[in-house]
Amino acid sequence: MSLPLTANHPTLNARRTDGVLDWAQMLSGAGLILFMWAHMLLVGSVLLNPSIMNAIAGFFESSGMAQVGGPLIFLLFLAHFVLAARKIPFRIEGQKTIWEHAKLLHHQDTWLWVVQAVSGMLILIMGAIHMWVVLSDLPIEALKCAGTLQKHSGWLLFYLALAPLVHVHLGVGLYRIAVKWGFAGRAQRVGLKRFVVLLVLVSVTISVLTLFRFWFMAV
Questions:
Q1: Average of pLDDT values for 10-31?
Q2: What is the mean pLDDT of residues 171-179?
């Protein structure tokens, strides 16, 4: 017969620590989801009128929110990656095992975890490049963004790859948060998946239209 775990038992303490880190991962992920949707709408305002985007960006910069908030978001971005990386196998053997299990189980949620892990690794690199370029070249202006994309077509390809990656990652993250933390039961999963797919399609569409608005803008 096994003995009950005491309050100071190492296994119980490890479980508590893991639980706290899971909460931190969820909260940091939720914060980044909200930020990225706000960011998408801010930049996407160029579809209505470049002056609207300039006015919004100007407000954040004149109030110091861009200069302070930008680095804070970057730190939150790194913290979320470190928290999520606890459960990502970095050794080849571990990656092969996860891949084989995903193929063997034929479980959609397992594949969603694989998609989220892979997209997260790519976003870590590409997102860091994007944030460095933007924060080191303030102020943010519609014509400046357009000029950068038009003069260097590689940036257009870069963002055409980054935008779908980000929104797929956000969508999968939103779904997994809802399922893991009990916001959506088994009966609601099908409807939730449809909502997330629609949300991702709308977000990617707005992002791609925004990029081509910059591409065809007269500079």
A1: 77
A2: 86
Query: Which of 3.40.50.12780, 1.20.1300.10, 3.40.50.300, 1.20.1510.10 would CATH assign to domain 24-215?
Result: 1.20.1300.10
106 confidence band (pLDDT: 50, 70, 90): low
DSSP state letters, the chain = -PPPPPTT-HHHHHHHHHHHHHHHHHHHHHHHHHHHHHHHHHHHGGGT-HHHHHHHHHHHHHTTHHHHHHHHHHHHHHHHHHHHHTTS--SHHHHHHHHHHHHHH--HHHHHHHHHHHHHHHHHHHHHHHHHHHHTTPSP-HHHHHHHHHH-HHHHHHHHHHHHHHHHHHHHHHHHHHHHTTSS-GGGHHHHHHHHHHHHHHHHHHHHHHHHHHHTS--
Domain boundaries, the chain: 24-215
